[in-house]
Task: structure prediction
Amino acid sequence: MFGAHYKKQILFIDANQNIGAKIKISGGGKCNLTNKYVSAKNYLGNEAFIQKSLDSFGSSDTLKFFEKHGVFPTIKENGQYFCGSSKEVLSAFASANSCHKFLFGSKVLDVEFEKDDFIIHTDKKSIISKKLVIASGGVSFPQLNASDIGYKTAKRFAHEVKTPNPALVGLTLQKEQFWMKELSGVSMRVKIKYEDFIYSGDMLFSHFGISGPAVLNASLRWERGRISIDFLPFLDFGLHSPLWNDKKQLTSVIEAPKRFIKAFLHSCGILDKPMKSYSNLEKEKIIQLKNYLMPIAGTFGFSRAEITKGGVKTDEINPKTFESRIQRGLYFTGEVLDVSGELGGYNLQWAFSSGANAAKNFEV
Ligand SMILES: Cc1cc2nc3c(=O)[nH]c(=O)nc-3n(C[C@H](O)[C@H](O)[C@H](O)COP(=O)(O)OP(=O)(O)OC[C@H]3O[C@@H](n4cnc5c(N)ncnc54)[C@H](O)[C@@H]3O)c2cc1C
Result:
C-alpha cells in the first residue's frame, strides 16, 4: 500500500483489488491483531527505535481503535488477541478510511522526485504528490502481489536496505537429517535454542523439513549454522537418569510420538529395547534427544514465509514520525522496514504502530 498526498487528499494505491489482502488470511482468517505483552524484545531490529514507536502506539491503542469500530478481539494463550473473523478488521479499516481515495489494482513501478514533488508511476497512470508513505510490506507471499518496490525506492533515495530474507518460515534439512522426512505429518512439543533465544512450542515434520510455531520463531533469529532442539522438553533426562533402570522398552518410557522415537533410534543404528539394556555409548547417543544439534540447510523460501526480515534500515528514519531523514516528505512504515516480529500478533502490531505514528504527523 502506498499513501500519497494528492490534490489535498490522501490517495491509497495498492496492486490488489481490495484493502488488506494479507490481513484477510492472517491468523488463519482469525487475525491475530496484537499481543498484550508486546515489547521491542519480540522483534529483530533496533530495539530503541522499535520501543519508541510501541510506547506511543501500543497494543492498548490498537484495541481501542478496533473497539471504536465495533471489533472486540479476545485474548487467547500467550497474550495473543484474535478477532472472530479478519473480515471485521477489514470493515473497520474501510470505515475508518472512507473519507480517503483508493486506487486499487494499480502496481507502482517506479517513484521519482522532481522539484518539490514525488511522481509515482503505476501501470495505469502517474500521480504527482507532495508526500509519500511507503507501506509496501516485504517480498514474502508473492501470490498476494508483494514486490520489492519499497526497497528499490528506498535505495533510489540513498537509504540502506538490509538484505531481505524469509522469516517465520519452515527450515530445510541437511542430508544427515533426511531420516526426518519419513515423519511427515508428525507433530510434537519441542524447545528450540539458537544463540540466546529459546522458543517452546509445537514442531511439525513435513516432506520439505520442519515447521510449526517453535520452528517459525527460530527462523526469525537463525542466520547460519546449527540450532539445538530439545525433543523431550518435559523430561529431565541425562546419563544418570533413574529411567535407565526401567525394564520397559524405550518407546514405552519416553513420552514422545513413537514414530519419531523409532525413526530417531534407526538413524543412530540403535534398537528399541528395555531401558536397562542400553550400553553407555548407546545412552550417550539417546540423550542427544535433549540437545539435538541440527545443521540447517535453508528455509522453505519467500513463497511460504509469513514475513520478510531485513528491509529499509531504521537509522535514517525518524522514530516519531517515520519520515526519512534523507528525503523530506517520504515515509516508510510496516514490514518494509528492518523490523521483524515473532509469531503472536507482533507483526500486525508493528504495522499499526508505525502506521499510526506516521499518520499522526502526516498533515495534508
Ligand atoms: C499467511 C500469513 C499469516 C499471517 N498472520 C499474521 C497474524 O496473525 N498476526 C500478525 O501479527 N501478523 C501476521 N502475518 C504478518 C502480517 O500480515 C504482516 O507483517 C503485515 O501485514 C505487514 O503489513 P504491511 O502493511 O507492512 O504490509 P502488507 O500487509 O504486506 O501490505 C503491503 C501492500 O503493498 C502492496 N504492494 C506491494 N508492492 C506493490 C506495488 N509495486 N504496487 C502497489 N502495491 C504494492 C501489496 O499488494 C500489499 O497489499 C501473517 C502473514 C502471512 C503471509
User: Anything to note?
Assistant: Residues 171-299 form a domain with the Elongation Factor Tu (Ef-tu); domain 3 fold (CATH 2.40.30.10).
